[in-house]
């Protein structure tokens, strides 16, 4: 636990009464970041004011400040925590002036809606005391390192999320889930990440409060303190964006890499690709309100656009983020990229052959991008207890993994939590996480009970349309002008033919032979007059995850069940006799 974070959060005690606990963060979070920035800017405050007086042009001023201080952000106000309290009557106006005069990169106070809180604090006669409490906390980088500040800020965010528990799952992914995702994401790169001075980029298009970015950075720095991980993120919830960007500022990361806005309709990093991408997008949230914009982008961007492979149902936008991240991986010629994304079960199998979801799976599998899928325990997240899966994508797979997908059943690796948080009552311990990562590392040698390695073709199939002749009143086939029998739409049926039927290893190229063999063996013996309408044949892909781990459990012997029933009946009769006296 962060002692500093606990101390800062204790200031919230002053807010009791006018503020409810779930509102404390609205005051504590922005004031913490304001005080941290105040301390960071203090040594060069006079220099920046002189430069501001000399250069009116904001772009020129930014260049000059960067040259003089090495920082990408600044503040030109005459106020700071050192003199704010000297003018008791003007505290509200002076504090507003202070936050107004940050450079454009520091826009977090606007998204915290902090001016509204300043007025509320003033009205409740709490502003002076709260500012006074923050003014005595020394958050200078020489006293509080970026790492310690990050821990403190993370503690405050966690307290805020706990207080607002009913909605925390919307913008807060549990640390144990993130740790597993990060370990799997970096698993293939662990050796490379330890090289001296290595530089990597990490991107989260649904950054939330920045927890996934922070933990990934922590993981990399634990292995290599000299490594540099440039963090990029986009978030469309104003408060989550403000928290995320504040976290980046508190830890000394470049705040300009965190963008506000909707990734699906306005990609803030449209021309960039990244070494690592990760995301926990919302599940089952419709995108009807963005459908027009997204469809227009798909049509105008052509075959190389991010949504080119297909669009999912407008009732669930998860697979849009899946496509977006596949598009964001660094090109294999430049070293390649990896993706880790958490989704529920529907992207594994929803939609039949030819549908948008199936076409997305087809694109990912035929381009050999899916490296592994890990089933997580249920009840892992704050806002849902449903089954969830981590997908790992890689566009430059290790030679052993090419053409393969590893399925890992991690549903049994969990520990019951002492205290339930929302829907979350299970967590993945460090030991359990290590076991799941070992299954991944062991690949083909992993415990077969929990890991399966399959070829991409194992997930492909053709949906064939089987027709039967239309008969006239005499029971004779009705034919067209060319003498071919007309199909009876009422007898029309479809069959799914796996690529691997009959042991075929030819994949999609074996279509004619495999479909014919299937028809001859599975259809023709039962309906000899049937035929296939080949023009209607479609290619589909689905990943029936649970089927691959299904284990048949025989029912109990009948004699054992009868014995149990007799025992229960005897108990009931005994109770009835006691009631009757």
Label this structure with key terms:
Rossmann fold; 14% strand; 40% helix; four-stranded antiparallel sheet; 15 strands; 21 helices; alpha/beta; 4 domains; globular; nine-stranded mixed sheet; 581 residues
Question: Would you write up a description of this structure?
Answer:
The chain is α/β, with parallel strands linked by helices. It has four domains: 3-164; 175-447, Rossmann fold; 458-548, no CATH class; 556-580. 40% of the residues lie in helices and 14% in strands. It has 21 helices and 15 strands. It has helices spanning 3-10, 24-41, 45-54, 58-69, 91-100, 108-111, 114-123, 127-135, 146-163, 175-187, 190-193, 211-223, 238-250, 291-301, 318-328, 346-349, 356-366, 430-442, 511-523, 545-548, 558-580; strands at 199-204, 228-235, 258-260, 276-279, 338-344, 370-375, 388-394, 404-409, 415-421, 424-427, 451-455, 460-467, 493-498, 531-532, 538-541. The strands form three sheets. The chain has a nine-stranded mixed β-sheet, sandwiched between helices. A hairpin with a 2-residue loop joins strand 9 and strand 10 (424-427). The longest helix has 23 residues, at 558-580. It is globular and about 105 Å long. The model is unreliable at 166-171 (pLDDT under 50). Residues 472-500 are annotated as: Disordered. It catalyses: a 2'-deoxyadenosine in DNA + S-adenosyl-L-methionine = an N(6)-methyl-2'-deoxyadenosine in DNA + S-adenosyl-L-homocysteine + H(+). It is an enzyme of class 2 (transferase). Pfam families: HsdM_N, N6_Mtase. Keywords: Methyltransferase, Restriction system, S-adenosyl-L-methionine, Transferase.
């Amino acid at each position: 636990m962060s002692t500093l974070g606990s101390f800062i959060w204790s200031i919230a005690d002053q807010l009791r009464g006018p503020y409810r606990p779930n509102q404390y963060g609205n005051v504590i979070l922005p004031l913490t970041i304001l005080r941290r920035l105040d301390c960071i800017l203090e040594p060069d405050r006079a220099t920046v004011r002189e430069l501001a007086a000399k250069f009116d042009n904001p772009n020129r001023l930014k260049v000059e400040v960067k040259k003089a201080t090495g920082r990408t952000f600044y503040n030109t106000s005459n106020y700071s925590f050192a003199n704010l309290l000297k003018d008791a009557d003007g505290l509200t106006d002076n504090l507003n002036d202070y936050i107004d005069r940050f450079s454009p990169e520091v826009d977090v106070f606007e998204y915290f809606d902090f001016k509204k809180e300043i007025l509320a604090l003033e009205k409740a006669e709490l502003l002076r005391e709260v500012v006074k409490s923050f003014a005595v906390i020394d958050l200078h980088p020489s006293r509080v390192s970026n790492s310690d500040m990050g821990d403190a800020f993370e503690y405050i965010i966690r307290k805020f999320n706990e207080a607002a528990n009913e909605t925390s799952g919307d913008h807060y992914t549990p640390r144990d889930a993130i740790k597993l995702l990060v370990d799997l994401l970096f698993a293939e790169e662990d050796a490379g990440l330890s090289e001296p001075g290595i530089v990597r980029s990490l991107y989260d298009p649904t950054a939330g409060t920045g927890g996934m970015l922070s933990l990934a950075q922590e993981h990399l720095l634990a292995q290599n303190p000299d490594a540099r991980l440039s963090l990029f993120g986009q978030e469309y919830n104003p408060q989550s964006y403000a928290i995320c960007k504040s976290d980046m500022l508190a830890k000394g990361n470049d705040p300009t890499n965190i963008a506000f806005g909707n990734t699906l309709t306005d990609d803030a990093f449209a021309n960039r690709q990244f070494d690592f991408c990760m995301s926990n997008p919302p599940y089952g949230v419709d995108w009807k309100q963005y459908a027009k914009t997204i469809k227009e982008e798909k049509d105008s961007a052509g075959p190389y656009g991010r949504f080119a492979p297909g669009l999912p149902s407008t009732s669930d936008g998860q697979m849009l983020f899946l496509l977006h991240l596949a598009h964001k991986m660094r090109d294999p010629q430049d070293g390649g990229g990896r993706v880790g994304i958490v989704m529920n079960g529907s992207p594994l199998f929803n939609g039949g052959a030819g549908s948008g979801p199936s076409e997305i799976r087809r694109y990912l599998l035929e381009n050999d991008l899916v490296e592994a899928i890990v089933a997580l325990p249920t009840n892992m997240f704050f806002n849902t207890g449903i089954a969830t899966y981590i997908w790992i994508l890689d566009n430059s797979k290790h030679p052993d993994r090419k053409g393969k997908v590893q399925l890992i059943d991690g549903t049994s690796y969990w520990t019951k939590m002492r205290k339930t948080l929302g829907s979350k009552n299970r967590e993945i311990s460090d030991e359990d996480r290590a076991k799941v990562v070992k299954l991944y590392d062991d690949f083909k040698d992993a415990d077969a009970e929990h890991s399966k390695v399959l070829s991409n073709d194992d997930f492909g199939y053709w949906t064939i349309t089987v027709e039967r002749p239309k008969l006239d009143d005499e029971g004779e086939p009705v034919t067209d002008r060319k003498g071919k029998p007309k199909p009876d739409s009422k007898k029309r049926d479809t069959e799914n033919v796996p690529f691997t039927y009959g042991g075929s290893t030819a994949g999609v190229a074996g279509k004619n032979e495999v479909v014919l063999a299937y028809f001859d063996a599975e259809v023709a013996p039962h309906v000899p007059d049937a035929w296939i309408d080949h023009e209607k044949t479609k290619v589909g892909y689905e990943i029936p995850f649970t089927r691959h781990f299904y284990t048949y459990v025989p029912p109990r012997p009948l004699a054992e069940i009868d014995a149990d029933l007799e025992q229960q009946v005897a108990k009931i009769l005994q109770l009835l006799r006691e009631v009757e006296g």
